């Protein structure tokens, strides 16, 4: 069991009601020698409930109904009182709940308390079953067998504030009119087997509620749900109604295919926790059948383009498939209609038990269709037909991107008729080129025999073809079009090689959208420059101007491309595998990588020669790396094709623990409680006074308010009265703390003013190092705490520890001295972001401002003297003024602050207090960018910092966030990019009742 879930079981004192024997509330006492429902001594008054009595069970363990029992009640109320816990177990026998009609009678698997019902056999008849019946009940039913039949309903989560959960792996539930999951509360149905039949409607959220907490989820992993109708978010109010399917079947009476497809399109029904593509929906006879289990997740993706001709086909296997029939071809109809035994087009590629298929090479520029049918287990070998997927392979040659071409010319007729008009796509559409003169290049006059236009690429390309749209001025103006040309190529714009002899370009028609162009084939090595020189035009010597409409260059991708990580990527884990899309027919790849760009440019950085288009280099933290891949292709001249230089930056640190992964989900449900990773003094309370994580029942164990980064930190409670306090994390397998240049271990910690001073220490593989900073750093004074008592960092050089840093097996954090126990004190220190750095990180930049020390302050701000304020003063107003509109704030409410930074990304924290309903406008007009904008004041820089996250009437720090961004409420921390030097912050009061004491601006935004 989970040690931290110390649930206080409050057994309510239930007043025994001595009443009418024909209609009493009879409570379970459990006083009998067994736990059977039929044992009189187990009930108050030693009376087994009869058909007219309400049976109340507020004990766990509670009552059991087995084969020997025939149980009756008017209603059954498990966990009737708020705070109570009750359990009913049924392994056989019968339970008849007699009351029918209105008012919600029936079997209540929890009323206001926490109720459990475990059913493995037997038969229940009831008008209604509620999980639970009333707020704030929580109900849990586990069903592995037996039958439940309701005259009307079964409901999980009836009201806002209730939670119902049904886990069914066997047995049968028959529902008379409606199955609600939930009605207005929260509900989860997990189904791995068994049967649910609903004569009526199965709702995943029937009503929703004004509180906005309604949610419903059905996880269908097995079994069969058969219903008359099926509704999600029935009132369409946007509450999260979801269903995920990995197995099992939902059968709906009639043709509801379009309705289900609509739910899938909205993302409400998914398969395999991914998306709707794995959901199978179709008609089977007169029923709609919804299931998952078909093969899905194709690679190449459905509709993909530019797919490598070397691609293999891969997919995620359907859950029931033991083999797959694969169909693959170039015709949709052939692939869609073929079967294993009727395959006129020869697209059937056999039956196989793996989820991959080697195509053996594909044609270029070809659209392929494929289909995977799932074959179930023998003996049935049922065939489930898959849908047809498609993709298109790469073209033989690609156009050189417009932005990578610079055009120059001998002259231009006017600035609007420059050479750039031949490579910028101007005037060119699918239909052809326009006749607009400013969509074309035209030379100045007087250049017979010498007009030229030249193109420079960003790097050498192996040009396959040049496509030329000639000058298309209307009518007679086509005479300006080039006729005979020479084409020259160069890699350096100094040595030129003429391409063939003289080429002739077709004359344009002068008609709008002239589609004709001339194709000129290239050969030879990659080139960086192409120059076209006009020998003549179509004017026959009458016109002395020369022009073109558009030029396209198509190249063969011999070079490496599509680097991973992408060029410019930051925060790349140094354990990264570099990969790229290989140059066409490259046999080998020479990889250069260095943190010295010039060495990579000059081909003198370390080189590794690989045959696969991937490599795992040895990298350090906190470095910018430059790399390139020179492709080796012996069929080409030259045989080595120089790649582009790409770059990426590795992350500054590796994370040992950021405390983001812990939760309070039970371990058996896949949870990750912090105390299993960080072992505290729970097992040795006499000597080890540490407690990791809060231990309040029903409360989170992790700290979510005081955090250094992310959303969580861990509270470390120490109690050193004749004890020490230590928490230990072990690493199995061991960690190598020498990799990637690691030299320093860093911990971020945050103390509290009421802490007792105790020596903080860390042990690495048992080697102890004590905190060498100010001991009072774990006990900030109140004034420090309010002003600067934020997170502190402790950097520990690893080398002096004298341990085998390549085999780190244990990290401990502690307070006190285990070798000298004294009557020490107690306290709490929060920890976050335990990291490994190559060198001690620079302390973050912090600019502290007193709110009352504004550079300028509008007349409406009030000034307060207050000993609880930093500096003894704050600004704001209690109530009755301010302006809660959506307009920019008036100058009377603007306070401005001048400050200086080194530049970069910054966030802000305010020390503030809600005096009443609070809200501030915030902006930094000098920021060059900010991550969010307010939907009401876009482009102004102002954002709404609303609902300051500090209990009303108390001071606290809160990060400045934007409440209204992108048209919806988000609470995301504002990040500003600030230039180095002077900046200005503006704060304006928007709404009544807010105090502002102090401001922190910091680049500690991790
Ligand atoms: Ca053009
Ligand atoms: Ca964290
Ligand atoms: Ca102040």
User: What is the oligomer described by this structure?
Assistant: single chain
Summarize the main sheet: 19 strands, mixed
Distance between the termini: 36 Å
Q: Would you count the extended β strands for me?
A: 72
Tally the helices: 5
Q: Which class best fits the helix and strand makeup?
A: mainly beta
The whole-number mean of residue pLDDT values reads: 90
The unreliable regions are 1-21
Instruction: Give the names of the bound compounds.
Output: calcium ion
**Global geometry:** globular
Give Rg in angstroms: 37 Å
- Secondary structure: helix percent: under 10%
* Proportion of residues in extended strands: 35-45%
Summary tags:
disordered N terminus, binds calcium ion, mainly beta, 1006 residues, 10-stranded antiparallel beta sheet
Characterise the protein shown here:
This protein has 1006 residues and is mostly beta strands. The protein has 5 helices and 72 strands. The longest helix has 9 residues, at 257-265. The two termini are 36 Å apart. Bound molecules: calcium ion (3 copies).
Strand and helix map with partners:
Layout: E1 25-27, E2 54-57, E3 63-65, E4 70-73, E5 75-78, E6 85-97, E7 107-108, E8 114-131, E9 138-143, E10 147-156, E11 163-168, E12 172-175, E13 178-180, E14 186-204, E15 215-232, E16 241-253, H1 257-265, E17 269-271, E18 280-284, E19 287-291, E20 296-299, E21 304-307, E22 313-316, E23 323-329, H2 332-337, E24 348-352, E25 356-357, E26 367-375, E27 383-384, E28 388-393, E29 398-399, E30 405-409, E31 441-442, E32 452-470, E33 484-490, E34 497-498, E35 503-504, E36 518-521, E37 527-534, E38 547-556, E39 561-564, E40 569-572, E41 578-581, E42 588-594, H3 597-601, E43 607-610, E44 614-615, E45 624-632, E46 640-641, E47 646-650, E48 654-657, H4 674-677, E49 691-692, E50 714-721, E51 725-735, E52 744-750, E53 760-764, E54 767-770, H5 782-787, E55 792-797, E56 808-815, E57 823-837, E58 846-850, E59 856-857, E60 862-865, E61 873-877, E62 894-901, E63 904-914, E64 919-923, E65 929-930, E66 943-946, E67 956-959, E68 961-965, E69 968-973, E70 976-978, E71 981-989, E72 994-1002
Parallel strand pairs: 1-2, 2-5, 3-6, 4-6, 5-7, 6-8, 7-8, 8-9, 8-10, 9-11, 10-12, 10-13, 11-14, 12-14, 13-14, 14-15, 15-16, 16-17, 21-28, 40-47
Antiparallel strand pairs: 16-19, 18-19, 20-22, 22-25, 23-24, 23-26, 26-27, 26-28, 29-38, 30-32, 31-38, 32-36, 32-37, 32-38, 33-34, 33-35, 33-37, 39-41, 41-44, 42-43, 42-45, 45-46, 45-47, 48-57, 49-50, 50-57, 51-56, 52-55, 52-57, 53-54, 53-56, 58-72, 59-62, 60-61, 61-72, 62-71, 63-67, 63-70, 63-72, 64-66, ...
């Amino acid at each position: 069991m989970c040690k931290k879930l110390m649930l206080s079981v409050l057994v309510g004192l239930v007043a025994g009601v001595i009443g009418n024997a024909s209609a009493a509330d009879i409570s379970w006492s459990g006083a009998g020698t067994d736990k059977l429902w039929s044992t009189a001594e187990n009930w108050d008054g030693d009376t087994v409930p009869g058909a007219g009595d309400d049976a109340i069970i507020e004990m766990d363990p509670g009552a059991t109904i087995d084969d020997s029992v025939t149980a009756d009640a008017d209603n059954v109320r498990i966990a009737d009182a708020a705070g109570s816990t009750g359990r009913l177990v049924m392994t056989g026998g019968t339970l008849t709940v007699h009351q029918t009609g209105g008012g919600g009678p029936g079997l209540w698997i929890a009323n206001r308390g926490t109720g459990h019902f475990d059913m493995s056999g037997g038969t229940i008849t009831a008008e209604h079953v509620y999980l639970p019946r009333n707020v704030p009940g929580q109900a849990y039913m586990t069903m592995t067998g037996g039958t439940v039949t309701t005259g009307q309903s079964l409901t999980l989560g009836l009201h806002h504030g209730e939670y119902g959960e049904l886990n069914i792996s066997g047995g049968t539930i028959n529902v008379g009119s409606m199955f609600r999951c939930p009605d207005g509360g929260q509900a989860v149905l997990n189904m791995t087997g068994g049967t649910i039949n609903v004569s009526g409607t199965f709702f995943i959220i029937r009503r929703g509620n004004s509180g906005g907490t309604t949610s419903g989820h059905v996880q269908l992993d097995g079994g069969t749900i058969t219903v008359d109708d099926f509704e999600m978010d029935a009132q369409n109010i946007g509450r999260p109604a979801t269903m995920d399917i990995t197995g099992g079947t939902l059968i709906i009476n009639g043709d509801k295919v379009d309705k289900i497809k609509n739910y899938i399109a909205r993302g409400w029904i998914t398969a395999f926790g991914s998306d709707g593509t794995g959901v199978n929906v179709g008609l089977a006879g007169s029923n709609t059948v919804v299931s998952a289990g078909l093969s899905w997740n194709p690679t190449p993706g459905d509709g993909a383009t530019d797919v490598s001709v070397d691609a293999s086909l891969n997919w995620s296997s359907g859950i029931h498939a033991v083999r797959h029939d694969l169909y693959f071809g170039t015709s949709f109809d052939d692939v869609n209609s073929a079967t294993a035994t009727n395959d006129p087009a020869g697209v059937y590629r056999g039956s196989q038990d793996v989820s991959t298929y080697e195509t053996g090479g594909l044609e270029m520029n070809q659209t392929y269709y494929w289909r995977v049918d799932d074959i179930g287990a023998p003996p049935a070998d049922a065939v489930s037909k898959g849908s047809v997927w498609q993709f298109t392979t790469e073209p033989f040659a690609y156009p050189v991107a417009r932005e990578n071409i610079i055009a120059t010319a001998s002259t231009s007729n006017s600035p609007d008729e420059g050479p750039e008009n031949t490579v910028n796509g101007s005037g060119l559409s699918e239909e052809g080129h326009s006749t607009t003169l400013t969509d074309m290049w035209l030379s100045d006059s007087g250049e017979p025999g010498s007009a030229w236009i030249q193109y420079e690429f960003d790097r050498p390309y192996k040009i396959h073809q040049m496509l030329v749209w000639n000058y298309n001025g209307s009518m007679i103006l086509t005479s300006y079009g080039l006729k005979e040309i020479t084409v020259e190529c160069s890699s350096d714009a100094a040595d030129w090689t003429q391409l063939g002899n003289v080429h002739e370009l077709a004359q344009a028609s002068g008609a709008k959208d002239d589609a004709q162009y001339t194709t000129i084939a290239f050969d030879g090595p990659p080139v960086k420059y192409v120059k076209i020189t006009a020998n003549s035009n179509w004017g026959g010597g009458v016109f002395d101007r020369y022009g073109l409409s558009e030029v396209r260059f198509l190249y063969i991708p011999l070079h490496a491309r599509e680097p991973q990580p992408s060029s410019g990527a930051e925060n790349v884990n140094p354990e990264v595998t570099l990969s790229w899309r290989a140059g066409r027919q490259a046999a080998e790849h020479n990889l250069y990588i260095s943190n010295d760009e010039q060495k990579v440019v000059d081909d003198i950085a370390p080189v590794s020669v690989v045959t696969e288009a991937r490599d795992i280099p040895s990298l350090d933290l906190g470095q910018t790396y430059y790399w390139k891949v020179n492709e080796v292709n012996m069929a080409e001249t030259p045989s080595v094709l120089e790649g582009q230089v790409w770059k990426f930056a590795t992350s500054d640190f590796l994370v040992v623990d950021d405390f983001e992964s812990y939760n309070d989900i039970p371990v058996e449900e896949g949870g990750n409680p912090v105390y299993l990773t960080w072992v505290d003094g729970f097992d040795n309370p006499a000597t080890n006074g540490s407690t990791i994580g809060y231990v309040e029942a029903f409360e989170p164990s992790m700290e979510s308010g005081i955090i250094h980064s992310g959303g969580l930190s861990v509270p470390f409670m120490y109690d050193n009265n004749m004890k020490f306090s230590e928490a230990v994390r072990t690493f199995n397998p061991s960690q190598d703390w020498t990799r990637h240049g690691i030299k320093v271990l860093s911990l971020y910690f945050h103390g509290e003013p009421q802490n007792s001073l105790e020596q903080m220490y860390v042990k690495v593989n048992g080697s102890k190092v004590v905190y060498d900073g100010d001991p009072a750093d774990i006990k900030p004074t109140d004034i420090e705490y309010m002003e600067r008592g934020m997170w502190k960092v402790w950097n520990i050089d690893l080398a002096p520890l004298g341990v085998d840093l390549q085999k780190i097996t244990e990290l401990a954090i502690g307070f006190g001295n285990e070798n000298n126990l004294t009557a020490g004190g107690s306290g709490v220190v929060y920890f976050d972001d335990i990291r490994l750095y190559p060198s001690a990180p620079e302390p973050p930049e912090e600019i502290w401002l007193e709110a009352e020390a504004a550079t300028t302050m509008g007349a409406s701000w009030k000034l307060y003297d207050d000993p609880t304020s930093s500096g003894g003063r704050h600004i704001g107003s209690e109530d009755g003024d301010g302006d809660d509109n959506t307009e920019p704030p008036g100058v009377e409410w603007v306070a401005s602050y001048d400050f200086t930074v080194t530049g970069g990304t910054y966030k802000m924290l305010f020390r503030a207090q809600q005096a009443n309903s609070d809200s501030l406008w915030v902006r930094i007009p000098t920021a060059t960018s900010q991550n969010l904008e307010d939907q009401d004041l876009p482009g102004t820089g102002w954002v709404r910092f609303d609902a300051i996250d500090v209990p009303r009437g108390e001071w606290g720090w809160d990060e400045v966030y934007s409440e209204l961004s992108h048209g919806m409420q988000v609470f995301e921390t504002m990040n500003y990019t600030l230039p180095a030097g002077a900046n200005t912050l503006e704060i304006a009061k928007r709404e009544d009742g807010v105090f502002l004491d102090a401001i922190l601006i910091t680049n500690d935004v991790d």
